[in-house]
Amino acid sequence: MTQAAELICPAGTPAALRAAVDAGADAVYVGFRDRTNARNFPGLNFSRPEMKDAVALAHRRGVKVFVAINTFALAGEPGPWRAAIDDAARLGADAAIVADIAVAAYAAEKHPDLRLHLSVQASASTAEAIEFFRREFGIRRVILPRTLTVAEVAALIRRVPVEAEVFLFGAMGVMAEGRCALSSYVTGISPNLGGACSPAEYVRYDQNADGALVSRLGRHAISSHPAGEPAGYPTFCRGCYRVRGRAAYPFEEPTSLNAVETLPALLKAGVRAFKIEGRQRGRAYVAEVVGTLRRALDSALAGKPLKTVDLRQVTEGHHETLGGYAKIWH
Amino acid sequence: MANPIPAPTRGPRAERSITRRDRGARANHRARIGLRPYRGAAVLARVLGPLLAATAHFAARRHPDLFERLAAIPDPTFAMVPDELPVAVIVRADTRRPRMRAVAKSDLDPARVAAVVRGPLSRLAALADGRLDGDALFFSREIAIEGSTEAAVALRNALDNAELGGLAELVFPPGRAARLVQRLLRLGGGILERVHARSTAQRAAP
Q: B133 and A232: CB-CB below 8 Å?
């Protein structure tokens, strides 16, 4: 028999949290309005009073709240990360999602009752790495990197005594997460410390006379999408470059993960939670994606055949991929 | 092919020298590219003025969190430019002096606002209400952003969280009148969407 599994849903604002709860989330993950989380975007995230209300609302509806405190503390300046851990515990969060050893150590020492999940930003893809975080800081769940195949996920779950959470839908990350510095080279701001890859203040869009949309980070062009061609996020890993004389996406095309078809296999492998990416997205995205994937997960848990899920309208570049679950690279 | 628009000339004296024939050529050209005469846009902007001013007033009172999310933007002034209309809406999201007004598109100076968002009216309205996801509209190229991306992202997030529920909810207290206006706006939006779809199809035709 397949064991129960949770649907973990994103919320960048209180309105998105309400949308996620209404659409059938088992848990919602959120962040404070500062650099302690990996979606530190303008106008996004929760103030402390908003977080208090969000936790109360979610708990009234039987939904858990996980607080992402998943950037890396600045050397000599751990204050904001410690305050985030303290406040997550004080406001009644069901778990803190952490990546930094220093942040995990502080949480384990000061708030032993606060459940800790290991963020994908920790890029823990081996049993030894996961076991280290469990042994030293009492990590109860690991969010696995988006680079593993279904078989690799299954093999890892057999070797680690913590719950495994995997990404089911949303923006892709095919790099060693938490260690990518591509955007730092141009902006001087690290996504892993500041919480924003390609910070918005460095991004510009130019509409050419021929209708092409040119996205730039700092002084560097990332992509030029001809008129009518779907666009993607302005990050270097999704850039279109001239490679051996030909325009190509050498790292990653503008695309989104949709792993719904692997749900039965991942459940069989022992995955305990499925994550939807997208705290930076609007509440319309949250409502549509959460509702659709709620139905898909319920069908998979009941052993029913899965219906085709078409969410291309909300995907990056209007393109979907199985990503690492069916990877063809090493 | 010769340019139908006379070359711009400088100074009041030169302005007086523009003949009636030149003005006619300009008007014909503007009509061909889908722009109405300046005078029509100016009148429409003036007519919309009180409604937009009232909207800004009520939005500031009912949705202070909207403005609070924009507090980090130094000059939170935005232009929403609907494809179908000859006017642009300028929004100044400053809690102390919130303001909304319309200007003729020809009078819009993108350098004087933090960000410009362009797109079909129905899409801009849906973005303002949070009925459609801003990133999805951007990916599909239905909306376009100019100027400060930081300001545009903050605006999108602030609007999405505000759950404005339509222009009617802002101007009228909840009730039958608001629902009626909401319905009329939806009807108007539907008509605009059909007009937009038809004109897009005509432009795309060989």
A: no
Residue A183 forms beta bridges with which residues?
none
Q: How far apart are the first and last CA of chain B?
A: 19
Chain A closest-CA separation from residue B49 CA (Å): 28
Pairing of β A27-30 and β A64-69: parallel
8 Å CB contact of A42 and B141: no
- The helix/strand/coil state of A27 is strand
| Cβ atoms of residues A63 and A47 within 8 Å | no
- Vertex B171, ends B73 and B40: CA angle to 5°? 80
pLDDT bucket at B18, cuts 50 / 70 / 90: very low
Considering only the beta carbons, identify the residue of A200, A232, A284 that sits closest to B153: A200
Angle at A320 between CA A46 and CA A212, to 5 degrees: 85
- For every residue of A214-275, DSSP letters joined together read EEEETTEEEEEEPTT-------GGG--EEETTEEE-SS--S-EEE-GGGHHHHHHHT--EEE
Q: How many CB atoms lie within 10 A of CB A149?
A: 15
CA distance B15 to B23: 11
* Residues shown for chain A: 330
The ipTM is: 0.93
Residues forming beta bridges with residue A10, ordered by sequence position: A29
Would you state the pLDDT for residue B4?
A: 39
Q: CA separation (Å) from B153 to A22, A214, B55, B62?
A: 25, 17, 22, 22
CA distance A14 to A43: 12
- Is the pLDDT assigned to residue A218 strictly greater than 80? yes
Among the ranges A124-138, A168-182, A301-315, B35-49, which has the highest mean pLDDT value?
A124-138
Q: CA nearest B157 in A: which residue?
A: A43
The answer on pLDDT for A101 being more than 90 is yes
Contact, A273 vs A5, CB < 8 A? Answer: yes
Q: What is the chain A residue with the closest CA to B160?
A: A282
What are the DSSP E strand ranges found in B3-114?
A: 77-82, 87-92, 99-104
In A, residues 293-322, which contact B (CB 8 Å cutoff)? Answer: 313-318
Cα(B104)–Cα(B96) distance, integer angstroms: 26
Could you tell me which chain B residue has the CA closest to the CA of A232? B139
A41 has a chain B CB within 8 A of its CB: yes
Q: From B153, which residue of chain A is nearest by alpha-carbon distance? A: A42
CB A289 within 8 A of CB A258: no
Extract the tokens encoding A304. 């029913």
Query: Is A284 an 8 Å CB contact of chain B?
Result: yes
CA distances from B68 to A44, A67, A280, B93, B156 (A): 11, 22, 18, 9, 13
A15 has a chain B CB within 8 A of its CB: yes
Residue B126 to residue A102: CA distance in whole angstroms: 43
